[in-house]
Each structure stands twice: as structure tokens, then as C-alpha cells.
Amino acid sequence: MSDTLGLLAEVTQLARDLGYEIREEPLGELLGGRCEVGGVPQVLLNLEQPVAERLDLLLRAIADDPRLDGEPKSRLLEQRLRTLRSS
User: CATH number of the domain at 2-86, please?
Assistant: First the structure.
């Protein structure tokens, strides 16, 4: 669980560094996802979902951003992104 929380914090900061607005709100049965509002990319995360599901959603939301390659990240995050991109 601590790896998951740490990765979620790392990915959240990385996404913010890339210009994404990360919104964490209770969304009921909605999972959340990526959208754009006024030209600003946003990712909505449902606080009612387990941490692992929020992490997976955020990773999927930003995985195709080419700017990720130039950003520093932990080996664990690099591995998760590589796995996600190859699937």
C-alpha cells in the first residue's frame, strides 16, 4: 500500500509539473478520467475509489504524453509506465 501511495503522489506531482490539473473529488459511481477545460488538461480522480484504482486511472490518463520521457521519475514509476505503454 505504501508503494501505491508513494507512486500516486509521484504521478500526481509529475502530472502537475506537465501542466495537468489534478482534481480529487468524491464522484459517486463515476470513475473519473481525463478531460480538457478551457484548454487546460485535467484528470478527475474519484476519492471514493481505492488508491490503486486512482493510480491506474492517472497513469493511463498521462501515459501517452510524450513529455513524460524527459521528466525524472523513479524506477518503479518508469517500469509501470513501460508496462502500460506496451499493453
Answer: 3.30.2010
Report yes or no on whether pTM surpasses 0.85: yes
Domain range summary for the chain, segments of one domain joined by +:
2-86
Buried b (16+ CB within 10 A) or exposed e, 44-63: bbbeebeeeebbbbbbebbb
For residue 25, list its beta bridge partners: 46
**The three grid cell numbers given for residue 4, joined into one nine-digit string:** 501505491
Residue (of 53, 56, 71, 85) closest to 15 by Cα position: 71
Beta strands in 1-87 (DSSP E): 21-25, 32-37, 40-46
Distance, in Å, from the CA atom of 38 to the CA atom of 71, rounded to the nearest integer, reads: 25
Give the pLDDT band (50/70/90) at residue 1. Answer: low
pLDDT of 37-59, one tens digit each? Answer: 999 999 999 999 999 999 999 99
